[in-house]
Amino acid sequence: MNPILFFLGIISAFSLLTFYIIKRLINKLDIKQKYKNYLKIFYILNVVGIVFYVLGRYYIDMPNTLYYLTSIPIGILFLSFMVAVLHDIFHMLLNKTNLSSSRRDMFKKTLDVSSLIAATALSAKAMSNATNVEIEDVEIDIKGLKKEYKIVQLSDVHIGGLIDKEFVSSMVKRVNNLKPDLVVITGDLVDMDVHRIQSVLDELKFLKSKYGTYFIVGNHEYFHDIKTIIKAVKALGIRVLENENIYIGEEGEGFNLAGVYDMFGFRVGHHLPDIPKALEGKKESPTVMLAHQPKHLELISGGVDLVLSGHTHGGQIYPFGLLAQLQQPYISGLHQHTEDMQIYVNKGTGFWGPPMRLGASSEITNITIKPSYDPNETRKY
C-alpha cells in the first residue's frame, strides 16, 4: 500500500468524524458560543494529535510520553462520535414529540449535558481499562485426547509504542506463573519495525513452558516486513508454524498443533494460508489449529478439533464489536462451530491504537484441554 495514500486515507477518515461531531453535536449544544468554540478547538487539536500519532506509529520516532498523549485522541474521537450519533437520534426524536417548548428545552439541555458527561466519562473509563489484563481460565473437552494439557494463549499483543518492555516483561512473568505445558501466540505480535522494538521482543525469550512457545503471523505482521519478523521471532527460540504442524506430548498421548499464515496473505499475494498443507502428515490424534482470524473457519473442512484465534480484540471499544461481527463469525470466547470443531477467540492481550478498552478486557487465556470421553475409545481423523 502506498504510504502517502495510507496516511491521507486515515487522516481523511478521522477528519470526517470530527466534522460530524462539530456539526451534529457541538453546534447543537445549548451553551454559550464561546464554549462551543472551545470544544471545536479541542476537537481540531484532537485531529492534530492523531496526525502525530500516525506519524509516530509508522514513519518517525518520538518519545513514548508524546506517543501516549497522541494516541489518546483516537479513542476520544471514536467515543465522541458514538455519543454524537446518539445525541443526534435523541434530538430528532425529541423534536417529533408534542411537548411544550419549555419542556422540550428542558429535555434538550438535559440531553446536552448528559452527552458531554458521557463522552468524558466513557473516555476516562476506557483508559483505565486498557492495561488491566485479565487471566481467562477456560476448560475445553476434546474427543480422543488422552490426557490434560495446559495451553496459555497470547494474541494481538501489538508490540510497539505503548506496548513496551515493561508491559511485555509483566506479561511474561504472569504467563510463567501459570506453569503452562506450552504457550501459543496467535498473531499480531509485532506492530512496528522490528529494529525499533528488538529489546522489547527479547523479553519473550524468558517465556517458560514444558513444550515451548509457538507463533503464527497475524495481519499486522504483513505491514512491517513479514519475513524479517518471522526471522526475528525464530531467533528468540520460538517455533513459527508456517502452514505446518508439530506433535505435542508423548507418542500416543499428545495432540497435533497446526498453524497457518493469515488470510491477509490473499490480499498481498504472499504467505498465503494453506489448510491442507498445514494438516499434512499429522498423526491420528486430536488437532489444535492456530489461525489468527476466526474467519479462517471458512477454509477448514475437517480434521481440526479446536481452533485458537484472536484478531477481533473483542471489539476493544464498544460498540465496535458489533461492526466486527459483520466480518468475523465470532468475536470472543468459546464456541461449538460444528459437531466436531470448537473455536476459542482471545480478546487480545494488548491493544491497538488508543490505550483504551471498553466492554472488552485484555486477556491472557489459560486453557486446559482435556479428554471428553473414555480414552480407550477410538476415533477416525
Question: Which features does this protein show?
Answer:
381 residues, alpha/beta, six-stranded mixed sheet, 10 helices, elongated
Order of SSEs: HHHHEEHEHEHEEEHHEEHEEE
> What structural category characterises the helix and strand content?
alpha/beta
Low-confidence runs (pLDDT<50, min 5 residues)? none
Q: Which word captures the global form? A: elongated
- What is the helical fraction, as a range of percent? 25-40%
Q: Tell me the Rg in angstroms.
A: 23 Å
**Quick one: how many beta strands?**
12
| Cα separation of the termini | 41 Å
The average pLDDT value, as a whole number, equals: 92
For the largest beta-sheet, the strand count, sense and barrel status come to: 6 strands, mixed
**Largest sheet: spatial strand order:** 1-12-2-3-4-5
β content, as a range?
Answer: 15-25%
| Alpha plus pi helix count | 10
Topology:
Layout: H1 3-24, H2 33-58, H3 64-95, H4 101-129, E1 133-142, E2 149-154, H5 165-177, E3 182-186, H6 198-201, E4 213-216, H7 226-234, E5 239-240, E6 244-248, E7 255-259, H8 265-268, H9 275-279, E8 287-290, E9 306-309, H10 320-324, E10 333-336, E11 342-345, E12 362-371
Parallel strand pairs: 1-12, 2-3, 3-4, 4-5, 7-8, 8-9, 9-11
Antiparallel strand pairs: 2-12, 6-7, 10-11
Helix pairs in contact: 1-2, 1-3, 2-3, 3-4
Structure description:
It is a single chain. The chain is an alpha/beta fold and 381 residues long. The protein has ten helices and twelve strands. It has helices spanning 3-24, 33-58, 64-95, 101-129, 165-177, 198-201, 226-234, 265-268, 275-279, 320-324, and strands at 133-142, 149-154, 182-186, 213-216, 239-240, 244-248, 255-259, 287-290, 306-309, 333-336, 342-345, 362-371. The strands form two sheets. A six-stranded mixed β-sheet has the order 1-12-2-3-4-5, with helices on one face. Strands 6-7-8-9-11-10 form a six-stranded mixed β-sheet. It is elongated, with a radius of gyration of 23 Å. 40% of the residues are buried.
